[in-house]
């Protein structure tokens, strides 16, 4: 069961968690949570009852209201503020939808493949004895640059093309 689902971001994270754990039904091909809707790509043979039943199981009983074409995913709200939700849109497709909605706030697509292991590389090193150190800051800003500074002092000339 998920923690509190206050926003569409919480919904997206929980669906990614379920996909990574291999806990999506075979008929669910893709899920995209947005501030204005949850888009589920489902296989053509999916019955009308399967989607709300699975969402209730995956997100908590009573989290989905309405019938197909009018499903709403209820979001958690502090008591006294009433309920708020996001519409659930169903797209029937044989596979993942090729056309993506833009603009995207993140370049992540949540798919069932998250549960599949990546193949191990054939060798442990890079071609030509290249050594690699990667820095990532999900927010951007100066953190990665500050982390690289000591390396430039230790190895002068290192990283000039990336700083």
Strand order of the largest sheet: 3-4-5-2-1-6
Helix content: 10-25%
* Share in β-strands: 15-25%
Shape: extended
Number of helices: 3
Computed structural class: alpha+beta
Q: Could you give a short account of the major beta sheet?
A: 6 strands, mixed
Question: Low-confidence parts, pLDDT < 50 over ≥5 residues?
Answer: none
Q: Could you characterize what this model shows?
A:
This protein is α+β, with helices and mostly antiparallel strands and 163 residues long. Helices cover 21% and strands 17% of the residues. It contains three helices and six strands. The chain has helices at 8-20, 50-59, 143-154; strands at residues 28-33, 38-42, 64-65, 72-75, 84-92, 110-111. A six-stranded mixed beta sheet has the order 3-4-5-2-1-6. It is extended, with a radius of gyration of 21 Å. The termini are far apart.
How does the SSE layout of this entry go?
Blueprint: H1 8-20, E1 28-33, E2 38-42, H2 50-59, E3 64-65, E4 72-75, E5 84-92, E6 110-111, H3 143-154
Parallel strand pairs: 2-5
Antiparallel strand pairs: 1-2, 1-6, 3-4, 4-5
Concise structural overview:
With 163 residues, the chain is α+β, with helices and mostly antiparallel strands.
Q: Which terms summarize this structure?
A:
6 strands; 3 helices; 163 residues; 21% helix; extended; alpha+beta; 17% strand
């Amino acid at each position: 069961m998920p923690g509190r689902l206050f926003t569409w971001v919480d919904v997206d994270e929980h669906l990614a968690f379920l996909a990574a754990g291999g806990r999506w039904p075979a008929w669910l091909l893709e899920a995209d949570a947005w501030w204005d809707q949850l888009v589920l790509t489902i296989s053509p043979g999916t019955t009308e009852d399967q989607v709300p039943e699975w969402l209730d199981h995956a997100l908590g009983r009573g989290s989905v209201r309405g019938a197909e074409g009018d499903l709403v995913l209820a979001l958690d709200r502090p008591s006294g503020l009433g309920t708020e939700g996001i519409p659930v849109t169903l797209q029937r497709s044989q596979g993942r939808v090729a056309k993506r909605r833009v603009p995207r706030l993140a370049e992540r697509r949540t798919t069932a493949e998250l549960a599949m292991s990546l193949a191990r590389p054939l060798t442990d090193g890079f071609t030509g004895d290249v050594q690699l150190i990667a820095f990532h800051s999900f927010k951007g800003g100066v953190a990665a640059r500050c982390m690289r500074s000591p390396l430039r002092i230790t190895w002068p000339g290192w990283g000039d093309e990336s700083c």
